[in-house]
Fold this protein.
Amino acid sequence: MQVLVTGVAGFIGAALTERLLARGDSVVGVDNCNDYYTPELKQARLARLEKQDGEFHFHRLDFADMAALEQALGGKAIDRIVHLGAQAGVRYSIENPAAYIQSNLVGHANLLEIARHRNVEHMVYASSSSVYGGNDKVPFSVDDRADNPVSLYAATKKADELMSETYSHLYRIPLTGLRFFTVYGPWGRPDMAYWKFTQSILGGRPITVFHKGEMWRDFTHIDDIIAGVIAVLDNAPADDGKAKAGGSTKPHALYNIGNNRSEKLTDLIAILEDACGRKAEIDWQPMQPGDVIRTYADIDAISNDLGYSPTTNIADGLPRFVEWYRDYHRV
Ligand SMILES: NC(=O)c1ccc[n+]([C@@H]2O[C@H](COP(=O)([O-])OP(=O)(O)OC[C@H]3O[C@@H](n4cnc5c(N)ncnc54)[C@H](O)[C@@H]3O)[C@@H](O)[C@H]2O)c1
């Protein structure tokens, strides 16, 4: 099986590729290794993949550049695509909207075109829990309306879902969108709270906490995420006219992929303090534009259709992250 993975140097893309190579799939990976966060971490993830047994070909390119993408893929047959590359992050979308338009809109359209012209059997793509905006009905279900995004990041992810719906209608391409809920774990992302808090607590610096810590997130461990992505990838939605998760009658499914627990930010901090062996000094700040108070995933659809069943809670997963962090940074 030849799988094209975009965002392969990213947190989820690298972890997925490790698993695909281990089970014998060939992976063509693309990433532009941009400096939204430290490119050294992206290089380190790639170096691990290069060392692993299996067939892995990496192309450093911007997938918003269709000519570059076509040229790199050349005559290669692609069976499946997992499109994880994107400009991530809610707060940065307030500062730099253009990056989101290029990577998340132009880039997503390019990947849909690749899927169309190469007749791929399934393309799985990353959406986000942020499409639910300030939804106050919890947990968030794929049957809820998600038409009021509160950040441009969320709006681009929702637009990706809409473009995908049209492609599956017109060209009958099997597509699955995954709404990820705050993914964390070893080899994670330096722009996310669990990483910044760990860094500051270990460094003896104050952590910045917004909205008096009155915020809740559905934290999902990377191992659970990868198990879910693989289950989804191996089960393309059928073109049988029946309603799929998320409501489409085309071969297009949408799933939440979370842990089905909404954890208070202050509980996350307490676990990190324990794991780091130090108390955090807190710099309290007001709610940030674009942020939401709570996320909470209803995972019935993916559990019923594909047997997805997350097993790692933050009490176990966060100390494992801190252990990796200390080892990686030698602190
Ligand atoms: N990690 C989470 O908690 C989370 C939550 C919701 C949604 N998501 C989505 O999941 C996907 C993967 O997220 P991640 O946490 O691995 O993020 P990440 O930033 O670690 O990985 C994304 C990768 O895409 C690459 N990239 C960005 N724009 C590109 C472009 N134009 N051309 C080529 N490469 C490009 C980046 O260099 C990066 O390595 C993203 O689509 C993200 O929006 C992640």
Q: What stands out?
A: The longest strand covers residues 122-128. Residues 7, 9-13, 30-34, 42, 62-64, 84-88, 103, 107, 126, 128, 180, 182-183, 189 surround nicotinamide-adenine-dinucleotide (CB under 6 Å).
